[in-house]
Structure formats: C-alpha cells, structure tokens
Specification:
alpha+beta, globular, FAD/NAD(P)-binding domain, single chain
Length: 390
C-alpha cells in the first residue's frame, strides 16, 4: 500500500494531486499492479491563494480534461479560463516590433485565476481533501509527502537562479483585454506581462505586471512608468527572489514542489508546467518504484536550469531601450552546456528542418519544456526582419 499526501492547495498542490491521480489511474488500467493506493490533499482553507492571473502550456488543460470526471472545456467553463494560443513579444530585440511565439495550431493553453482553479479542483472528488493546518510534516501519516506550502521561511537550503528582475508592480486593466494570447512587452525598466483573464475572475485585479530590478529602478519610478505606458490602476507591489532547492527530495520521503521547490520570474509561463513535470518525474519512484529519487532530483534541477537559461537568452538580444536595466540584463552569463548544442542546431537549420526533426524524434529535439521550434521562432524574431501579419 502506498499513500501520498500533498500539503498545500495552490497551483502546485492542485496540479500535483491531479498528476499523481491520473498517472495512478493509467497504471491500474494497464493492469501492471503499480500505482498509488491513496492520494489526499491537505490544506489550510485560511491560506490565501496566489493573487496573480496565471498562464499555462497546453499540457495543463489537457490534464484538466483527462484527470477530472467533470472535465474542463470551454462550454462548461467553471474557472473562467481564456484561451492562450502563444505569446506576443513587443519591443524586444532591435529588428521587429512584434515577435510571436506560437503554439502548434492544434494546441491551446489557458489563462486562469488561481482561486477559481483551486475551488474547481478541490471539489472534483478526484482525490481525498482534508482541511487542516500542517506546520510539521512529521505529523502527516503517509509514505510520501509533497510539500507545496509556498515560499520557504529561510533560503539557507536554496541556490540563487540567475535573472535580471526581482520586483513587480501589479495592476488592473482599465479597458477590456480579449487577445487569445499572453503579451510580454519590453519596457525601459524590464518588461510587462498582460494576461487576458476573465473580467469576473478575482485575479483580473492583478492581470498586468510591470517587472523590474529594484536595485536599478526605484519603486516610485517603476510605478510612474507603469501608469505612463499602460492603461492600468495599480493594485499591488511585490518583491521576490529567484531560487531553487538544493535537495528537491528530503529523506527519500518529502518531495518539494511549487514555490518550496523553486521560483523564477513569469516569462514564458513556466511555473505550472514545471510543477506538473516534477510531479510526473517523482511519480516514477513513488508509483513505479523504478527510478531512484536522486535521479529524479538531478533531472528536475536540470529542467529548471534549462528554463532559467532560455529565459536569460531572451534578454541577450536587448530591446528597443538602451537603458541601465537592459545593459545589465544583456551581460548576464549563460552556462548551461546543453543550451549551446540546441542553439548550434537551430541557428544552422531552417524552421522547416527543425519541425521535421521534431516530428521524427520529438523527445530528442527539446530543450527544457520547449520543442526546439520554440527556440527557433525566437531566434528568427531576433535576427531576421519578419513579415508582420494583420
């Protein structure tokens, strides 16, 4: 008998519970005798959920479709999700005003409000839900505990991830945003995300965020530039660290996920995708007993390092602004060795060649969570003058 307890019901807790539940159901359907016998999610209902509107990769709505009896769809849309077909970059680089990073035409991701997602998942009956505050994980009666209780109180057991932004001003749009994609707009102090969450969702109040570096730009200047460049009402201000746990698995029993595992700025919407990826990796040694915990830890740390690197690469091409922030961001170093192999491949091939390679061998032509065509789209946008449509 194997019992797993997920502690915390934020984005990481909910998607971890769904991933473990779905993987276990598939194992039992295959009849191989593996899987998890009991899955429970323990959470304190008084803990506030993430405030900011979220965006995903296509794999997350696929999980909501597959793992829930009352599956996610756009007709029965309890979470007020809006479609995400890619990311529109504006004012990045020196050649094109707009660069679009598309998803394949048959794939759709979503934007959503974390509070609505939490309510939807917890009421799904996909696993057992217990309302209880947990301060000591030793109190949890389970073979494995997935710790999704949010940011750590101390960063002693964490390493810093390299990134140029560490603060954000959040705002409510003063006019409706209905684009079917996320926007990443370069600014003089950093960049701004625009997430078209539904107007009825609580996170609509914080669906635009002006990201900057607080050591380069003062809070006052960031807020002034935010309202100057965007039609918003300021609603919040946050500072943050970019970090990763030194040990994703502790004592072969406690598995960190969510902000207990890592935090990295929101470019490319990689957080929830990484939470789900780590749940899938860790399931292999929980449910299948065929993969050592330290091997899974190595893999997820490499995955996060590749996310860090791909995001850093975006800054290397600069923006239309020649400011202290962009000079600082462009000088940050990229050290991840597999990135150089991926870059050499995409820079020597046409987009068509990259897509053919992916189709023939999808698993080999990836970098972190991205197919290499995602890197190629960005490289073309930064190095070639594109024909702008529309």
């Amino acid at each position: 008998m194997t019992k797993v307890s997920i502690v915390g019901a934020g984005n990481a807790g909910c998607f971890s519970a769904l991933e473990y539940s779905w993987q276990s159901k598939m194992d039992k359907w295959r009849g191989n005798g593996r899987g998890i016998d009991e899955i429970e999610l323990i959470h304190d209902p008084h803990t506030e959920t993430e405030k900011v509107g979220q965006a995903t990769f296509p794999q997350q709505p696929q999980l909501l479709w597959s793992a829930l009896e009352k599956e996610f769809n756009y007709y029965s849309n309890a979470i007020h999700a809006t479609p995400k077909l890619g990311i529109l970059y504006q004012n990045w680089g020196k050649i094109n005003k707009d660069v679009f990073h598309p998803f394949p035409g048959n794939q759709i991701a979503v934007h959503f409000c974390p509070t609505e997602m939490q309510q939807y998942v917890l009421s799904s009956n996909a696993f057992k839900v217990i309302e209880k505050e947990i301060n000591n994980l030793d109190e949890v009666d389970a073979d494995y505990v997935i710790d999704c209780r949010g940011r750590p109180a101390s960063f002693e057991d964490y390493d810093e991830l390299i990134n140029p932004v560490n603060a954000v001003v959040l705002g409510k749009p003063e006019s409706k945003i209905d684009d079917p994609y996320t926007k990443h707009v370069a600014t003089e102090d950093g960049w701004t995300f625009i997430i078209p969450t539904h107007e009825e969702s609580p996170s609509y109040e914080r669906s635009i965020g002006y990201l900057y570096n607080k050591e380069i730009t003062s809070r006052e200047d960031a807020e002034k530039n935010f309202t100057k460049n965007f039609n918003v009402k300021i609603t919040d201000h946050l500072t943050f660290k970019n970090y990763i746990a030194k040990q994703p698995v502790i004592n072969n029993r406690i598995i960190l996920n969510g902000n207990r595992l890592f935090f990295l700025e929101p470019m490319e919407s990689t957080s929830i995708s990484t939470y789900q990826t780590w749940a899938r990796y860790s399931y292999q040694f929980i449910g299948n007993k065929g993969w050592a915990a330290h091997h899974a830890s190595i893999d997820i740390k490499q995955h996060i390092k590749q996310v860090e690197t791909f995001i850093l690469w975006h800054y290397k091409f600069g923006s239309k602004y020649d400011t202290p922030f962009w000079k600082y961001a462009k000088d940050l170093s990229i050290h991840e060795p597999l990135f150089h192999d991926a870059f050499e491949f995409i820079s020597s091939k046409t987009l068509e060649d990259v897509k053919i390679a992916e189709a023939v061998n999808p698993a080999s032509f990836r970098y972190g969570p991205w197919a290499l065509s995602g890197l190629k789209y960005w490289h073309k946008g930064m190095t070639e003058e594109l024909k702008q449509n529309g």
